[in-house]
Amino acid sequence: MSDALLPRRFLFSFSQPCLYRHPLWTNQRLEAKYRLIDFAELEEKPNRIEVRAAWSEEGLAFAVTVEGKRQPPWCRHHRAEDSDGVQFWIDTRAVHNVHRAGRFCHSFLFLPTGGGSRLDQPVAQIMPINRAKENPREIHPEQFRVVSRKLPGGYALDIFIPAAALTGFDPQEHPRLGFTCAVLDRELGEQTLGVGSPMPYQEDPSLWTTLELTREERD
Question: What CATH architecture applies to the domain 35-213?
């Protein structure tokens, strides 16, 4: 692959703070101070997603906003991989010198709709990582909490991933996480927070960014 085809985000190693919040999961959305940097700006590409993240010993919380849609999201829980949604990849050890996922690497998929008898409920699914050497412990999707809201031209998701669903999650001993996420949408295409296609970010932890679990709460 020539340098001209390499995404600019591939040329850098990114790290950014993920702020502490207590209580972590509330009725209020994560505030603007929890917003993660959008590295797509390095490639002068419009990115229609905003991701906010926070942590505590209870686990991780995210707020995702997807904008720029003219059509409602197409979501089916039995066809999750073909649906419009948000996928996270998390490595609780932040190992960036390997190219295959290990037991501390996770992939979670969240859909704004597609669940329930009327297909109007949000969906959470655990996704396999291609070529993984080992898998994290088995968990049930009911452990997650997901709230979905319709927006003009898009949707918003509030997500709680409990510590019990994250193999190896230990903020005191391992305060760094490997992390990336992508919005996969039939209308908008692929929108990634870090390195995107054609790089194999879906299976290669070395392409993920780093979240520094920062204990200080900021005003």
Answer: Sandwich (2.60)
pTM across the whole model: 0.90
Residue 186 CA, distance from chain mean position: 18
| CA–CA dist 93, 102 (Å, integer) | 10
**Please, is 144 exposed, middle or buried when counting C-beta atoms within 10 Å of its C-beta (0-12, 13-18, 19+)?**
buried
Q: How far apart are CA 67 and CA 60, in angstroms?
A: 23
What confidence tens digit (pLDDT) does each residue in 114-158 have? 999 999 999 999 999 999 999 999 998 889 999 999 999 999 999
Which of 16, 26, 78, 45 lies closest to 197 in space, CA to CA?
A: 45
As beta bridge partners, residue 209 has 179
Other CB atoms within 10 Å distance of the CB of residue 14:
18
Q: Are strands 176-185 and 49-56 parallel, antiparallel or unpaired?
A: unpaired
